[in-house]
């Protein structure tokens, strides 16, 4: 009964908020003679906006552009190929998050490598991989470290456990990314005109509200940190519209139950203890200086890239336009393969595989039948 009451109350609030958001969007359109364009940075927001129906309800009023916040989607093809090639040795166990299993490499997927008899395991946390290493000391256990600031502290926790337990057959193949450098890159290149950002709740939980103040201070754009429920998304869009209407460049925390001004100092300490900034390649963009984190020199014995080499083959070219989707240049239906050759059952690119991918979100919730 309470659950039903909560749902009823929340849908009434959502309705009222939606009406207000539409009203504000119309005011914006009247004032600036165009539809406001906001980028949701985080892949979980992309999925939440589609799943809750917020994106569809607002499609004629706000241009919601999916940003580069899905970790699997932004990983470049050569890295995906290298990770799949890692499975080719008999004395290795490759551990990964489930999202990676079906990501198409140029010459197959991790799922196919597993079907071919290679030891590829899905784990819920990198610490699970440390325990697998502990139980299989005659084998090398490699964790595929893909993710943003939310994942890096978890990778640090695994290295801490491996260090404390003196586990020498565990390592991580790092391909982590940071949000600030990619946002700077997109803004500096002015590829998409934006009126503000819906900022990622989870990354902000680690990095804090202040971390995003550069958007206001240097780029004169507002940003609102949001939660993931319909009411939270609509509330944040309402605040973002109010800021954009007044050309008021502020970064607001609308997810205060979770996000603090300075983030999580403990998590940041462990990130910086094990990892240092490095240049990272991004799908469809190229290498951006200091846009990721790699294992510090003093912990290089945990760095799979130092321990193992893989044959580098040229990535196979496809018509997949994930690179443009990630940069907000096109919406998924503009890709000729969308919902035809490329579907969740037969994905051509990572944006259709990942649970945070724009193409998957469009396919599941926005597609016209
Ligand atoms: Fe790539 Fe498929 Fe998305 Fe096209 S629809 S951009 S092929 S993932």
UniProtKB/TrEMBL annotation:
Organism domain of life: Bacteria
Record family assignment: Belongs to the HypD family.
One record GO biological process: protein maturation
KW Flavoprotein (keyword) present: no
UniProt protein name: Hydrogenase expression/formation protein HypD
A Pfam family reported for this protein in Swiss-Prot or TrEMBL: HypD
Gene Ontology molecular-function annotations: 4 iron, 4 sulfur cluster binding; carbon monoxide binding; iron ion binding
Source organism of the structure: Thermolongibacillus altinsuensis
Native organism taxonomy: Bacteria, Bacillati, Bacillota, Bacilli, Bacillales
Keyword Metal-binding carried by entry: yes
UniProt keywords, alphabetically: Iron, Metal-binding
């Amino acid at each position: 009964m309470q659950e039903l009451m909560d749902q009823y109350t929340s849908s009434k609030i959502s309705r009222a908020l939606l009406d207000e958001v539409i009203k504000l969007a119309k005011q914006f359109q009247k004032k600036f003679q165009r539809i406001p364009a906001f980028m949701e940075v985080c892949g979980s927001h992309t999925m939440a906006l589609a799943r809750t129906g917020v994106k569809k309800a607002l499609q004629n009023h706000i241009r919601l552009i999916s940003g580069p916040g899905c970790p699997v989607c932004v990983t470049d093809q050569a890295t995906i190929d290298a990770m799949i090639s890692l499975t080719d040795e008999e004395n290795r166990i490759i551990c990964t998050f489930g999202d990676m299993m079906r990501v198409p490499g140029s010459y197959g997927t991790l799922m196919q490598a597993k079907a071919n008899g290679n030891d590829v395991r899905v784990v819920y946390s990198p610490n699970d991989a440390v325990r697998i290493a502990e139980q299989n000391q005659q084998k090398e256990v490699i964790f595929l470290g893909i993710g943003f600031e939310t994942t890096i502290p978890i990778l640090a926790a695994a290295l801490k456990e491996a260090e404390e337990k003196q586990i020498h057959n565990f390592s991580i193949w790092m391909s982590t990314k940071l949000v600030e450098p990619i946002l700077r890159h997109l803004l500096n290149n002015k590829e998409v005109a934006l009126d503000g950002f819906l900022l990622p709740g989870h990354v902000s939980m680690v990095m804090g509200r202040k971390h995003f103040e550069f958007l206001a201070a240097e780029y004169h754009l507002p940003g609102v940190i949001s939660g993931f429920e319909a009411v939270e998304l609509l509330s944040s869009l309402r605040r973002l519209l109010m800021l954009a209407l007044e050309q008021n460049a502020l970064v607001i925390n609308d997810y205060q139950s979770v996000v603090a001004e300075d983030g999580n100092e403990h998590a940041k300490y462990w990130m910086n203890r094990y990892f240092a900034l490095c240049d990272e390649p991004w799908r469809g963009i190229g290498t951006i200086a200091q846009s990721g984190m790699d294992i510090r020199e003093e912990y290089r014995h945990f760095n799979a890239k130092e321990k193992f080499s893989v044959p580098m083959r040229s990535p196979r070219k496809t018509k997949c336009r994930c690179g443009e989707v990630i940069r907000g240049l096109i919406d998924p239906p503009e890709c000729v393969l969308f919902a035809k050759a490329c579907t969740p059952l037969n994905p051509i690119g990572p944006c259709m595989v990942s649970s945070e991918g724009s193409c998957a979100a469009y396919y599941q919730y926005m597609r016209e039948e």
